[in-house]
Amino acid sequence: MAYKALTHPLAAEKLALLANSLKDAGPVAIYDPHDMVDTVMALLPVPVTVAAVHTHDSLKVGQVRAGLPLRPVVDMGQGAARTIWALDFNHAAMESRLSGLLPAGGVLHTLESVCLPRHMLSVAHNYLDRLNFATNLAFFRDTAALSTRLVTANYWARYGARAVRLWLRLFDQDGQVLRTWDYDVPGDGQAIIIDSADIRHRFNLPEFTGQLFIHAQGIAGHDVVKYALETRGKGTNASLSVTHDANAWPANRYANLPAPAEGEDVVLWVQNSHALPIPSGSMTLNRMGQDRHVPILPELAPYQTMAVHMRDILPGLSWPEQIEFRAGGHVVRSRYEITQHNRTRIAHLNVQRADLRPDAGITRLDPRFFGRGYLLPFPVPDPARYRTLLLPSPMAESLTTLPVRVDCFDVEGTAGPSRFMGCLPRDHGMVLDVSALATGPGHGELLYDFRDGGQADGWLHALIRYEDRQTGHASETSFGSHIFNTIMTYRGEPQSYVGAPPGLSTRLFLTAAGSEPFSFCRLIYPVSATWHAQSDTSLYLHAADGTQIGHEKIAVPMSGSREIWPHRVFGLSTLARAGAGAYVIIRDTTCRLFGYHGRMAEGDGRFSVDHMFGF
């Protein structure tokens, strides 16, 4: 949690002042009670000369931190440094603890000066409580051609929060602060809508393409800021995208970035997530599975947003080849934007795990307990109208093979055709046209198949692209696999949005638009083995103020799927009464369902698809 506490924009400003003070104080001896010195040093905007790092943990003495062996804190007064920096946010506590250990004439510094104001904390008595730093970043843009809208709800109220508010800071493309403001969300289940066009008009702002920092305060129960991000074209621009929230943590590598197909321009939006510049060449791009790395040469200023065109930096690659983004921990999950036929579509990259290793146990999962094991379910809309293209993606740094197949199911859950894609190498460029395999609308499931050997780590991912054969409009999404709806568990699976495994329950969020483009979701009931014959699913319509104004029941057959359109389920008049910001909670306590949300304009066929979020 130290990372989020120190990278908050307000904290980062204060940390810069503290670092400059320490820089001028000569050699510094550090006391590191929370094992965070490496994180702190990486976030300093100016170098601080460290003479020694001390710990009170006798078992850690001799371990290396910040490039130095840890020394016992009892020896702190014996060194030459007269400036002591205790990496704790409570100055009084550190002063009491270290009073007998400070060198003669020593000066004690802590991190208390970096703390956020008390009124911004959800848990005031414990500064590093995870609820104090429910933060996230969103790609945010408003130009003559395109606008963005962030949509979610006050889901913290169901855990007891009563005075939720958002602290918001908007950065422009150069990383400059355009505006900082508060957004009060006092109502239980109240809709949250942050529209770029409204913000631009309200604050009289110029066009911008940047990022929005979000800090949820006064919250309870849930420390992740989840949202759907809509991108819409203005005027005659027919662009339409809805994507999932960003990952609030930076990573070293990202995947699911496609190379451009013919006639496409693929742009990676690189957004600096920190108050530090990103040095030239410290981020690179490469073809997945190959070691020729092309650096991103311009230095990025703090919070700057930069468009990187794949054809410029990797001109020899084309769809369905994949690109790996080595971000060096400088950015949270980035977006990419594809322009084709004067329309854009936006999707997100996924974090490539550094901590996972192939797990031989997955190859030996007992079918009595886990059936077909890990599944990645995805919609297959009417093959006569839409192409469904699936591109498996390695999502762990150590993975070298992907042994996979695709199983198809119709909407009633009847198994259909299956296709073994092979034991694919990490650098494969194989895409499967699932619409050519399926016999009708329904869904597909990507899963492991070890008939030709291969590795598995339980983090099986794929990019799924949808193309309208009539209009040429396209959309894409990416996600990973889980074990679904089994009572036996394996390494934290099957997961649930509510409770510990095997929670087998569902709570999904779906916007409810009463005018075009209408919102919809593809709700899938995947099972790794066998579970209930049908789901027992409730659809709760909430007005923008959180009031429940409608309830309908549906049943999804096991291994089947349903398409849900709120304006058809509840009626346009009811949605009009619910108001802008209305939403649907999809709830099931008998099984875990998996959903994909989107928008569609029935008039011109514009549509978008991405996986849903729950809380």
Walk me through what this model shows.
The chain is mainly beta and 615 residues long. The protein folds into 3 domains: 1-115, Rossmann fold (3-Layer(aba) Sandwich), CATH 3.40.50; 126-348, no CATH class; 362-611, no CATH class. It is built from 10 helices and 40 strands. The protein has a 6-stranded mixed β-sheet. Strands 18-17-20-15-23 form a 5-stranded antiparallel β-sheet, with no helix packed on it. The longest helix has 15 residues, at 9-23. The model has no long low-confidence stretch (mean pLDDT 94).
> Helix content range of the residues, please?
10-25%
Helix/strand-derived category reads mainly beta
Total domains: 3
Main β-sheet: number of strands, strand sense, barrel status? 6 strands, mixed
Q: How far is the first residue's CA from the last residue's CA?
A: 21 Å
Task: Give the C-alpha Rg.
Answer: 25 Å
Mean pLDDT across the residues is 94
Uncertain runs are none
